[in-house]
Amino acid sequence: MSAQRPLAGVTLSSEYATALRDWRREREFRSKMLKEAQDDPEKTDEQISAMPYPRGWWEYAVDPRADGAPTSPDSNAPGMLDRSSDLNTDSLILSNWWDDDTPGMDTRDILAYQQMLKSEMYKGDWKSDIGDWLGYYTDEAWTPDIYIRTSMADYVPNMFNIFMDDDGDRLDPSKTENGWLRTGQTLGQGLVGYGLGGGLIFLGLFFAPKAVENISEMTEQVVTGVFETLFSIREKASESRLRRRQAKEAITGS
Fold first, then answer.
1. Which among 64, 97, 129, 186 could disulfide-bond with 15, CB atoms 3.0 to 4.6 Å apart, if both were Cys?
2. What's the structural domain count of the chain?
3. Which helix (H) or strand (E) holds 225?
4. Binning pLDDT at 50, 70 and 90, where does residue 132 land?
């Protein structure tokens, strides 16, 4: 099978996914330690500035151990890292798997990656848990970091992707040999998917005013009915008190 970029999509290796998890763990740990130090009145500015700060993904990938990443002007490695230095043995970008990928959307690898992220979300703090879940569903659930999207069809949510192959799986253009046919598949998936999504948005906006109007009328009727009932009960109670007072006056003559 051949898959020509940029019309195939690429799923990165499982080692890449594990490295992303380890980087997130380090970032969260350093962020927590730094915040606790900043909130500690006994910590000086010098002590805080000397603490390890959270790193970006690239900085972590270059030097996971943070023990130095020597370079060499004669190196052909990314970032001109010195391949002969023992300090670079931990560098992810020099690992054998760094260039490994699978053409198309590997559903199992992506699902394993997403489940791994979900297992990291339960910290026992509801604020952190809610933030993690919101971040997940606004990012990783739709665009997992281990999948490189290369066509408009890749950005169509699965619920709007109505095309499937003979096995009932989502149609993956990366499995199509012919370049023109592969292009047509990605174009068709994208146009139909965006059309369905846009159609639902249009219907929602079209019926929203009527729905709001009906809900407003219903709310007004309910509120009016409640107040009318309350006023009626109050009026009946006042009439009852008046009758009792009149009856008492008639009996006592006062």
1. 97
2. 1
3. helix 179-252
4. confident
